[in-house]
Design brief:
51 residues; alpha+beta; two-stranded antiparallel sheet; 2 strands
């Protein structure tokens, strides 16, 4: 991929990245409210974490 196509793709990904960060925070808040773990991908494995 050349530099021009990388720049063209970036503006499209920015709103999606923001939406994913917002969703992550809502999921953590919900897990805290109900005392449930959240599952994330870390070092090639799925692990449960307390938020």
């Amino acid at each position: 991929m050349n530099a021009k196509s990388k720049r063209a793709a970036k503006p499209t990904l920015t709103p999606a990245g923001r939406a994913l960060r917002r969703a992550r925070e809502v999921a953590r808040k919900t897990a805290r409210m109900y005392g449930t773990p959240i599952y994330i991908w870390r070092d090639g494995k799925v692990v449960a974490e307390k938020p």
